[in-house]
Amino acid sequence: MRYISTRGQAPALTFEEAMLSGLARDGGLYVPETIPQMSADDIRALHGLSYEETAFRVMRPFVGDGFTDEVFADLIAKAYAGFEHNARAPMVQIAPGHFLLELFHGPTLAFKDFAMQLIGQLFQEALERRGERVTIVGATSGDTGSAAIEAFKGLDNVDVFILYPHGRVSEVQRRQMTTPPEANVHALAMDGHFDDCQARLKDMFNHFEFRDTVRLAGVNSINWARVLAQVVYYFSSAVSLGAPDRKVSFTVPTGNFGDIFAGYIAKRMGLPIDRLVVATNQNDILHRCLSSGAYATSQVHPSISPSMDIQVSSNFERALFDAYGRDGNAVAQLMDELKNGGFNVSQGALQALREHFDSGRVSEEQTLETIRSANASMGELLCPHSAIGVRVGEDMRDPATPMITLATAHPAKFPDAVEKASGIRPPLPNRMADLYERSERVTRVENDLTALETLIQERIAK
Ligand SMILES: *Cc1c(COP(=O)(O)O)cnc(C)c1O
């Protein structure tokens, strides 16, 4: 299995190489050259399996020979051992035909743990075998950073630097990043928005001298291995509702388009998914694009669902690559236009996208109202991101097809918004109840590439 860049100009890599590098050297994102297929019988055989066993069967064909079957199964087991719930991704019914897939039982209370815990294991194994070390730099709107720090803290072969927008993450998110005492963890609070953090990260990857000197590795959702890990729960949840003999749809609270793109991969592998519904907050570039074809960036408006406060949805490039018939030059041209504020998706490509994706947008007031009513009518406390999903999922639901909405974070990760809406302040789970007492360690940094690169080089030299 080889991986190619969405911009067509970088060398094809193995799974392990693509995982360790993150972004392709032509600025593109790696995608599998071909999509492995699961037949109806293969999918039927997943009934009753553990999450880990399902994960092995779904991911194995993508991973190649770098990891043996035994090692890969062992790494999967370790990755999910720290989850609170034995089902890992349990599902509850919230209305007739509408189900909530709880993806927040991992160590940092957001779905990002599903991918990050696994790639922490995969990185460690691959780097030890190769006798290499890397510098991981990640940009976060809050949840990626905490999940990455949790997955990589204390590992011998990595330093992990996380850039987050100063003052724009929730207190729980911030503390999860600033309280781990391990020396290889570096939380950096940068001036600006998440998009600024993500832009500086991309600059570092495109600065080859720096990239090669520090052996830069990326774990943002542009890393293919993260997308792959997220494909698994589309299978596990659909199978529990009767796939492959019954179709399901999914609604996904969306920012960077990584999670929903994993659903698209599941569909391409053969899972009978009817609709994939993108749910956005007031930062609705994806909803506007799927509605009109115009992908036009504007200001980011901070919201109560900060993990979705994004204008440039990196993984959308992967969907565009397929929608443009895997034409890397066409994608490279669109991404050039994006530097000047946006582009128009061609009619053909827009039609291709709409074959799979629908979208909906939820205002701040509607988000609060959904948290309130979900608690009142079914005793389910939703985080603001999950509430956006539930609202759109309910609006877009076709009565003939079960809708699965992804609950992307635990309500206790966003206690202020949840309390404002419902009057209930959700408590942190016991295992992290002392989070507010732990001491914090963070470095303030300017939104400046050279300053960042200098800081990283000084830190890893120690
Ligand atoms: C990251 C995140 C999202 C958005 O996921 P994408 O893969 O970036 O689209 C939604 N909700 C929560 C809680 C998140 O942490």
UniProtKB/TrEMBL annotation:
Domain of life, per lineage: Bacteria
Catalysed reaction, written as an equation: O-phospho-L-homoserine + H2O = L-threonine + phosphate
A Pfam match: Thr_synth_N
EC top class, as a word: lyase
Threonine synthase N-terminal domain ranges (all copies): 2-80
Keyword terms, alphabetized: Amino-acid biosynthesis, Lyase, Pyridoxal phosphate, Threonine biosynthesis
Pathway the protein takes part in: Amino-acid biosynthesis; L-threonine biosynthesis; L-threonine from L-aspartate: step 5/5
GO biological process: threonine biosynthetic process
Keyword check for Amino-acid biosynthesis: yes
Needed co-factor(s): pyridoxal 5'-phosphate
InterPro entries: Ser/Thr_deHydtase_PyrdxlP-BS, Thr_synth_N, Thr_synth_N_sf, Thr_synthase-like, Threonine_Synthase, TrpB-like_PALP, TrpB-like_PALP_sf
Sites of N6-(pyridoxal phosphate)lysine modification: K112
Keyword Ligase: no
GO MF, one annotated term: pyridoxal phosphate binding
UniProt family annotation: Belongs to the threonine synthase family.
Annotated PANTHER family: THREONINE SYNTHASE FAMILY MEMBER, THREONINE SYNTHASE-LIKE 2
Protein name in the entry: Threonine synthase
Lineage: Bacteria, Pseudomonadati, Pseudomonadota, Alphaproteobacteria, Rhodobacterales
